[in-house]
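Support request from a user on the community tier.

User writes: "When I paste my structure tokens into the form, the page sometimes reloads and wipes my input. The last time it worked, I copied everything first. Here is what I submitted, just in case something in the input itself triggers the reload:"
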């Protein structure tokens, strides 16, 4: 993707088949390149379920990062063979011994098991491929010859329909065969299949242990879900392969088209993109300010940003994204628990018994001389300290228990700023915990504006209310009457700003004379403004909503 090249990150897992000869014997290696960022962990976990081994790649200039440890734990949970490799050894700033020692410490292996290579110059690549062949076991199936193929990814082709990428675990997949999706229950005929070499290369069949693509001509994306098992129809395997855990979105935001006419196009684009990235979900939503759109769930802020940018680039849409928020569990006084994805869904304050918010286990790796500023930032964000471990003389691993809401509101940017770009983080959703949380409502001219509502800690409600009211005062245009902007919690106003009325100079025609004439004109104007205030309606411009979204994203 152009987006991957620009940002220098991997967003989508890419599979390829590689033929390699070692000591005169030909080998076939199926490789899948996965993302490393914490927001794309679901992409990694899906890939690991289709593999026997993992090459753990560490940058020789940066060392072990928090994401490296997170992905290592995922691979170990799947029982994969780990091949540790230090890359970019040809760079002048490479610290081979230090990085190698970190890997030995984390994995508990012998120093001679760590491999060194440079993907740019090709140095050491031969040794890495030899180690993969020697250490990683060949694929083994369940024992019988019934067809079982795991769908680990898919894409949408305008002419072929849904093209699924599969790893054949047992049996054989051939052209013209009738197949069945074990979880979805849909049936189809194989129109074409083949290998990823790296382009789609046609073949007659795929055997056990092979990885390739299957096209059936199905256009409905819901009939071929990722994680499903393909078998023969009508008689197939009795049990499906272990699929994937359904990803649980942790960050929610609204996506609205700038032009309301693009709503249907946005719906189709989201359906197609979800086929390629099943880690996000969406449902229709309406906003009094932004019109019709969708409430989308993402795995993190980078994931949200990437989905927005892909929609704009690949489908030519112009979008407005509302400020991200997390999901809350709210229990009312009758004992009923509801899930709140949007602050506007929060029950009235007098009926709420308790509010629980999601907490994450946060892992930060930072240079030793940056520990102070990083810990100060975490304490400001309501994080609870857990542990600190020195990985090497100048690399520290700090773990915290932290509210997810604090993480999504500009935490990553501030962490990079305080550590001069050297700190890295990884997080995992752990539990919901009760907290002193309240719904902060913003009223403009006495009317509650849902788009500006938010759920905040009680002790920060007043300062946040003042901040929002001041921001709105600067972006809402002056009306012909005085306009009150108020922040309230549970019906009690805690902050207020006033947008002064736009006034005409009614005394301009007066020259000299008695002051009583001017006073009379001012009183008449004042009475008119008062009357107008009682019946006046305020139309908030879209710019006000966009300005508020930007201010909330920056934390």
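"...and here is what came back when it finally went through:"
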């Amino acid at each position: 993707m152009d987006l991957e090249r620009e940002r220098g990150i991997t967003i989508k897992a890419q599979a390829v088949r590689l033929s390699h000869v070692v000591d005169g014997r030909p080998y076939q290696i199926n490789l899948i390149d996965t993302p490393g960022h914490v927001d794309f962990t679901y992409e990694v976990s899906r890939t690991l379920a289709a593999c026997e081994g993992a090459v753990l790649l560490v940058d020789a200039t940066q060392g072990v990062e928090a994401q490296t440890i997170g992905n290592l734990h995922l691979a170990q949970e799947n029982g994969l063979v780990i091949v540790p490799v230090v890359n970019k050894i040809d760079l002048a700033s490479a610290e081979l011994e230090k990085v190698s020692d970190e890997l030995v410490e984390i994995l508990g292996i012998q120093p001679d098991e760590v491999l060194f290579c440079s993907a740019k110059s090709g140095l050491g690549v031969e040794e890495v491929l030899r180690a993969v062949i020697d250490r990683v076991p060949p694929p083994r199936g369940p024992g019988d010859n019934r067809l079982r193929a795991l769908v680990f990814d898919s894409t949408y082709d305008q002419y072929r329909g849904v093209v699924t990428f599969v790893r054949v675990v047992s049996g054989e997949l051939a052209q013209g065969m009738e197949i069945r999706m074990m979880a979805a229950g849909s049936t189809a005929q194989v129109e074409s299949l083949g290998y990823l070499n790296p382009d789609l290369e046609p073949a007659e069949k795929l055997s056990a242990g092979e990885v390739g693509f299957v096209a059936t001509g199905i256009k409905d994306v819901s009939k071929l879900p990722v994680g499903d098992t393909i078998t023969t129809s009508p008689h197939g395997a009795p049990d499906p392969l272990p699929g994937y855990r359904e990803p649980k979105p942790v960050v929610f935001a609204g996506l609205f088209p700038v032009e309301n006419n693009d709503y249907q196009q946005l719906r189709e684009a989201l359906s197609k993109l979800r086929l390629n990235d099943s880690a996000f979900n969406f449902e229709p939503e309406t906003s009094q300010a932004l019109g019709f759109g969708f409430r989308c769930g993402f795995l993190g802020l980078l994931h949200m940003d990437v989905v927005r940018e892909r929609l704009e680039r690949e489908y030519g849409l112009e979008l407005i994204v509302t400020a991200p928020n997390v999901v809350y569990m709210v229990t009312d006084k009758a004992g009923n628990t509801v899930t709140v994805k949007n602050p506007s869904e929060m029950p009235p304050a007098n009926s709420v018994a308790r509010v629980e918010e999601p907490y994450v286990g946060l892992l930060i790796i930072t240079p030793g001389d940056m520990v102070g500023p990083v810990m100060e930032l975490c304490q400001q964000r309501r994080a609870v300290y857990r542990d600190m471990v020195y990985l090497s003389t100048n690399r520290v691993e700090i773990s915290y228990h932290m509210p997810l809401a604090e993480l999504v509101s500009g935490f990553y940017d501030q962490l990079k700023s305080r550590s001069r770009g050297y700190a890295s983080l990884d997080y995992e959703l752990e539990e919901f915990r009760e907290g002193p949380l309240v719904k902060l409502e913003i009223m403009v001219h006495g009317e509650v504006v849902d788009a500006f509502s938010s759920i905040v800690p009680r002790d920060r409600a007043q300062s946040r209310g003042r901040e929002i009211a001041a921001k709105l005062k600067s972006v809402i245009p002056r009306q012909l009457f005085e306009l009150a902007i108020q922040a309230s919690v549970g019906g009690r106003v805690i902050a207020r700003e006033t947008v002064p009325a736009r006034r005409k100079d009614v005394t301009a025609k007066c020259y000299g004379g008695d002051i009583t004439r001017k006073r009379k004109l001012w009183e008449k104007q004042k009475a008119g403004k008062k009357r107008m205030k009682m019946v006046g309606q305020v139309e908030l411009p879209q710019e006000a909503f966009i300005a508020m979204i930007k201010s909330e994203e920056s934390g």
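Agent notes: The reload is a front-end session timeout and is unrelated to the input. The mean pLDDT is 79. The first strand starts at residue 14 and ends at 22. Escalated to web team.
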